[in-house]
């Protein structure tokens, strides 16, 4: 009887793979007892795998069943063969268009079957993961416009290796910070650039991404996301010759300052005119 009880307990802890489908294991699962918190180092205000609005029981269910769920494994097995899909961290290295197209609908379906609210599965989850599909597949505004502009941009405040790794794809901005080497100055610069690109590329429902970016910036312990303030100078504190030089160039300074602030003002007007995607 004791042996039978042991076997039953063992099978509950280590469930068998789906017959005929060796599982695509989610890399980096947390230690037993904490499956909703991922195992990588993290300094964010709230450290979880993937999306950040699902409860612990939902993530417990997802992470315990992803390797054995017949519906989920059947959906991704063929499409993701040969890809480095990480189920747990929701990443794969391009080219992985077909894999991602098969993966994310099946994954959020699993979330729903594990108890995630339908409005979340069909709202926030769909918004973000479908945008990443467009990015990886070269379709829609994300794939045909934002991606090219993002890859061509020079992020001067993102110099560390972790910063550069994070910015390989735009959606890295929404992930947890893993170390202090992922700097807030980099996240600030990149987040504001993304807002401008979303406007320039006329991304549908862009306001949702703007608000989500602000929220994740704060959750990553970087404070409130605001445009960078420009430095000001006073001619009264300078010597007379220098003050005269500054005075004659004041018009140029004003024009230059206006030119720098114009994108911020346009971004403000644009975000004010956008209705939130989710009420």
Number of helices: 12
The counted number of beta strands is 0
The SSE order reads HHHHHHHHHHHH
Low-confidence stretches: 4-36, 230-255, 268-279
Determine the structural class based on helices, strands and strand pairing.
mainly alpha
- General shape: globular
Strand proportion, as a percent range, falls in under 5%
Ends distance: 55 Å
- Mean of residue pLDDT values: 74
| Radius of gyration based on Cα positions | 23 Å
Helix content: 40-55%
Largest sheet: none
Structure description:
With 279 residues, the protein is mostly helical. Helices cover 53% and strands 0% of the residues. It is built from 12 helices and no strands. The protein has helices at 2-13, 56-65, 70-77, 97-113, 118-121, 124-137, 140-152, 161-166, 184-200, 206-219, 240-248, 250-272. Helix 6 packs across helix 7 and helix 9 (184-200) runs antiparallel to helix 10 (206-219). The longest helix is centred in the last third of the chain and has 23 residues, at 250-272. The protein is globular and about 50 Å long. 25% of the residues are buried. The model is unreliable at 4-36, 230-255 and 268-279 (pLDDT under 50).
Ordered list of secondary-structure elements with their pairings:
Blueprint: H1 2-13, H2 56-65, H3 70-77, H4 97-113, H5 118-121, H6 124-137, H7 140-152, H8 161-166, H9 184-200, H10 206-219, H11 240-248, H12 250-272
Helix pairs in contact: 3-4, 4-6, 6-7, 7-9, 9-10
């Amino acid at each position: 009887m004791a042996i039978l009880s042991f076997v039953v307990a063992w099978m509950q802890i280590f469930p068998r793979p789906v017959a005929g489908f060796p599982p695509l294991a989610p890399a980096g699962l947390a230690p037993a007892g904490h499956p909703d918190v991922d195992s990588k180092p993290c300094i964010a205000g709230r450290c979880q795998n993937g999306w950040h609005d699902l409860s612990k029981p939902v993530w417990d269910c997802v992470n315990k069943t992803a390797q054995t769920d017949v519906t989920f494994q059947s959906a991704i097995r063929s499409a993701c063969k040969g890809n480095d899909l990480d189920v747990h961290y929701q990443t794969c290295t391009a080219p992985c268009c077909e894999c991602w197209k098969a993966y994310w609908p099946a994954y959020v379906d699993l979330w729903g079957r594990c108890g995630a609210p339908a409005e979340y599965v069909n709202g926030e989850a769909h918004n973000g993961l479908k945008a990443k599909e467009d990015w990886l597949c070269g379709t829609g505004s994300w794939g045909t416009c934002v991606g090219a502009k993002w890859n061509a941009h020079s992020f001067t405040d993102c110099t560390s290796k972790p910063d550069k790794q994070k910015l390989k794809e735009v959606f890295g901005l929404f992930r947890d910070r893993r170390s202090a080497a992922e700097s807030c100055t980099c996240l600030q610069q990149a987040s504001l650039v993304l807002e401008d690109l979303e406007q320039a590329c006329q991304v549908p429902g862009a306001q949702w991404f703007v608000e989500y970016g602000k929220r994740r910036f704060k959750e990553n312990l970087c404070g409130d996301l605001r445009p960078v303030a420009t430095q000001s100078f006073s001619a009264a504190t300078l010597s007379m010759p220098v003050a005269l030089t500054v005075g004659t160039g004041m018009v140029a300074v004003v024009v230059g300052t206006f030119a720098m602030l114009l994108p911020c003002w346009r971004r403000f007007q644009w975000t004010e005119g956008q209705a939130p995607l989710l009420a």
